[in-house]
Design goal:
Layout lengths: L1 H10 L1 E2 L5 E2 L10 H14 L7 E5 L4 H11 L3 E4 L11 E7 L6 E7 L8 E9 L3 H13 L2 E11 L4 H6 L5 E11 L2 E5 L4
Parallel strand pairs: 3-4, 3-7, 7-8, 8-9
Antiparallel strand pairs: 1-2, 5-6, 9-10
Helix pairs in contact: 2-3
Bound molecules: guanosine-5'-monophosphate.
């Protein structure tokens, strides 16, 4: 997605060998128009696949996921990282190791929101080693829901996430694919959409 790649080139900050900071348009301050365009591209990529729910993980997956869900006209569910007092129903849970925070957390979705009739599109902001996506896939499997595919805003293709997910037989659609960081600049592969 050209608009996204240009924005990463303009505003992305390479923090170290592995981490890109995009807090001016995606992970903290959010460019709503760019997110709406991203939602449209994901919705197009998965149209005709009878998606019934879009699933993501808090916090930074929420904005691309909500715009995708709006375009597909289905609900969006975000897995929660901290158990809230109001979450007193039965839960689907999975353990997720966070690449950026370097802690493992239990993520959960209320059982009442996902079941075996659902066809799920998983959306997230970044794909690094695939642990967040794997945890979300596990939550869907516990519910008996079918995962149709994974939509990723920014994939770091030099890490193992895509391989992990493709090995599960699931398609990955990434809007920007980063091959590496060189001298503080971002290098790209061809994106999927
Ligand atoms: P994974 O679980 O695939 O290893 O990492 C994906 C998760 O870690 C995403 O949900 C995202 O929040 C975070 N993440 C991974 N790499 C980066 C990065 O380079 N920059 C930012 N801002 N977040 C990242």
């Amino acid at each position: 997605m050209e608009e996204l790649v240009s924005r990463i080139k303009k505003d992305g900050l390479v923090l170290n060998q592995d981490v890109l900071k995009v807090d001016s348009f995606l992970t903290h301050q959010v460019d709503a128009n760019l997110m709406a365009a991203i939602g449209g591209v994901f919705a197009d990529a998965f149209k005709g696949q009878q998606i019934t729910k879009v699933v993501t993980i808090e916090a930074s997956g929420i904005t691309p996921a909500i715009f995708t869900a709006q375009k597909l006209q289905v609900p969006m569910i975000y897995a929660r990282k901290a158990k809230s007092l109001t979450m007193n129903e039965e839960l689907l849970t999975a353990e997720v190791y966070s690449f950026t925070k370097q802690v493992t957390s239990t993520v959960s979705i209320s059982k009442k929101f996902l079941n075996e009739t659902d066809k799920v599109l998983i959306i997230d902001d970044f794909l690094a080693n695939g642990q967040a996506a794997k945890g979300l896939i596990e939550l869907c499997q516990q519910a008996g829901a079918e995962v149709v595919g994974i939509g990723i805003v920014i994939e770091k293709s030099f890490q193992g996430g895509r391989q992990l997910i493709e090995d599960m037989g699931l398609p990955v659609v990434s809007l920007a694919r980063i091959s590496g960081f060189k001298d503080g600049t971002v290098e790209f592969l061809e994106g999927d959409a």
